[in-house]
Amino acid sequence: MSCGQLPDDEVFNEITNRDEKELRKQLTRELPYWLAFDQLSGVGLGGKRLRLLFEHFLSIEAAWSASATELRTLPWLKSEQIEQIVQKRKEVNFDQLMETLEKTGVTALPLNHPLYPSRLREIADPPIVLYMKGQLTPQELDHSIAIVGTRRPTTYGQRLAKEFARGLAEAGATVVSGMAVGVDSLCHWGAIEGGGRTVAVLASGPDLCYPTSNKPLYNGLIDGTHGAVLSEFFPGTKPEHWRFPARNRIISGLSKGVVVIEAGATSGSLITADIGFEQSREIFAIPGRVDAPMSMGCNKLIAANKAQLVMNYIDVLNALNWVSVPAPREVPTMVELFGREKEVFELVTSEPVHFDVLSQRLEMSAGELSATLTMLELAGIVERLPGDWYARQTKVSTI
After folding, report:
1. Pick from 192, 188, 320: which is nearest to 202 by CA?
2. Burial letters for 156-178: b for 16+ Cβ neighbours within 10 Å, e otherwise?
3. Residues near 301 by beta carbon (within 8 Å), at least 6 away in sequence
4. Where are the alpha helices (DSSP H) in 194-338?
5. CA distance 92 to 55
6. 271 close to 248: Cβ distance less than 8 angstroms
7. 64 touches 89 (CB < 8 A)
8. Which of 184, 128, 178, 127 is nearest to 151 (CA)?
9. Within 10 A of 316 (CB to CB), how many other CB atoms are there?
10. Is the pLDDT of residue 211 over 80?
């Protein structure tokens, strides 16, 4: 999509039957006014009230140009709001706003734009303007699912985040998350590995990568290869603490449902789940051990009947009635092992065990153990985890 403002001709033809040139002119003419309204922070003009303003004056340009006297006829605007609107309008530089979009390569989708996500438009407080870098079509958001979780997932959570995202992406779903470290990032990568599309909703301007450690992921999204990044914040806006809960309503608002992988008792992902529940989204949670801190939030969601218990991505697809995907056969991988390979494998369980512990218990040299573990990895029955920890792959048995 060109930096700027409007979709290319191919996408444009898919979303409207109106005269293309006329609609393009109208959107180009109106865009600066939408951007200007989006700059009037602190005056209480959210998406809901701006829609009322737009409907009253029949055009966003007329709404922007309305005099104080005309604005006073609207019962849902207070006198102090009107004074602030009139004063702050004088401070807005239209040319500067448009120039910033052009320089940053950001696409702006106002509330009335044909490409503005219809599901997001329905929430109580939709963003006035949605800012995007990358490529995204309304069709890709028809089957979008949010996956969220803790920034400090356990090995269990890391594996499930990847598995759920990969499976959903392979089935054609678009995975939505917040690009935070931990579960969010793993879900984005899982969707990419599944050959699907993924959307990162940022708590900063879409031209800023936060956290910076996610630069490779961010670059793969903004070039449109794997999806897009979205934000309600104008380019250049830095991430601040209060912006993260605000962006959570967009993560759930874009999606048909929300999957919580792992969440502590006070995890921010529970905010997303609660907001999604209020937005009438389907909420799913993966259960965990009752004494596991990172499963406490998920278990509570399930116990409170706020979330459906799911054990794999097939459960999510079936609950949403999206696609008919045959359930995988529960056939274990059969591997024949001999000698020291069998000894090592028998000590490696689904719970991670450290290299040093294996070496001590087996009385094996580091070189011999490393070579044996490598063979087991190549056989696909043992997985090496960060920090020299090892775990058995599921559905594996030996002869």
Report:
1. 188
2. bbbbbbbbbbbbbbbbbbbbbbb
3. 260, 263, 270, 273, 283, 285, 307
4. 215-222, 243-253, 268-278, 296-303, 313-320
5. 23
6. yes
7. yes
8. 184
9. 24
10. yes
Q: Two tokens at 338? A: 């001999």
Q: How far is CA 287 from CA 155, 259, 301, 312, in A?
A: 14, 11, 9, 11
Taking the C-alpha atoms of residue 118 and residue 116, their distance in angstroms, rounded to an integer, is 6
- What digits encode the pLDDT tens for the residues 341-353? 788 888 888 778 8
**Which residues are CB-contacts of 247 (< 8 A; sequence separation ≥ 6)?**
178, 201, 202, 203, 231, 232
Q: Between helices 296-303 and 268-278, what is the axis angle to 10°?
A: 20
Residue 135 has pLDDT above 70, yes or no: yes
Give the pair of three-digit tokens for residue 329.
Answer: 């056969």
Q: How far is CA 123 from CA 77, 149, 256, 280, 292, in A?
A: 21, 22, 12, 10, 34
Provide the β-strand partners of residue 148: 260
Q: What percent of the chain has pLDDT over 90?
A: 56
| Two structure tokens written together for 134 | 């990358």
Cα(127)–Cα(139) distance, integer angstroms: 20
Instruction: Find the DSSP H helices in the chain.
Output: 9-15, 20-38, 47-57, 60-65, 68-71, 79-89, 94-104, 118-121, 138-142, 155-170, 183-193, 215-222, 243-253, 268-278, 296-303, 313-320, 339-347, 355-362, 366-378
CA distances in angstroms from 389 to 344, 355, 386, listed in the order given = 13, 6, 6
pTM recorded for the entire structure: 0.77
Instruction: Give the distance, in angstroms, between the CA of residue 194 and the centroid of all CA atoms in the same chain.
Output: 16
DSSP letter string, 316-328:
HHHHHT----PPP
Q: Which residue has the tokens 């879409």?
A: 206
| 229 sits in which H/E element | strand 227-231
Other Cβ atoms within 10 Å of 79 Cβ, number:
10
Q: Which amino acid is at 168?
A: L
Written as one string, the DSSP assignment of 236-247 is TPPP-TTHHHHH
Residue 179's alpha-carbon distances to 210, 216, 344, in angstroms, are 8, 11, 37
Q: Considering just the CA atoms, what is the radius of gyration of the chain in Å?
A: 25
